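Database export, one record per block. Field names are fixed; values are copied verbatim from the stored entry.
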Amino acid sequence: MGRAVPIVAMGLATLAGGVAAFVLTRGPDPAMGFFITSVGLGDGADLGGLAGADAHCAALAEAAGVTGKVWAAYLSTSTVDARDRIGAGPWVNARGETIAADLATLHGPGNHVSRATALDETGARINGRGEAPPLRHDILTGSLPDGTRAPLTCEDWTSDGAGAAMVGHHDGADLEDKPSEKSWNSAHPSKGCGLAALRESGGDGLFYCFATR
């Protein structure tokens, strides 16, 4: 009888491993309402405006198998606040993990945006500080910490030239370890609006997507 316990435990561990493998390979949770775009649109911060960014969110979600939702990019413009575009919550990631229950939580210290939870639409992680290159943790937002507009939006997401965009760090990490630059939605301005300029500081033209309903 004394040998039965480890044998049973081994069996349970094998079963658990099988379940975990199934979960990881079955695609994103159908309830997914938050992700970072796995790829940008190829023109730096020129996203075709808010309409182009929203369409990119929807296309990526549907390609990943999450359908029937309305998607909005978390982007502010000179006249629009990002927080007013994304619905009321709650939002979960591709693994079904809650990012925030509502807007107040999302923009407060209780949100769960981190390198472990801010996943792309397939459930894959985005390269963060200290991980294998290329660094991609500069996420376009054009926003202040409370989700309202910042005056840095690359001409309302229509420019890939001069100018700058406010970006957040999805991994909450910064080279100089400054608390002010660990924000998920308002860490620092980019070095420009073109793709090469975005990549100079650790970006790739990526942005957050939220399901509004």
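Remark 1: Confidence is low (pLDDT under 50) at residues 1-24.
Remark 2: Strands lie at 34-36, 71-73, 91-92, 98-100, 138-140, 166-169, 188-189, 203-211.
End of record.
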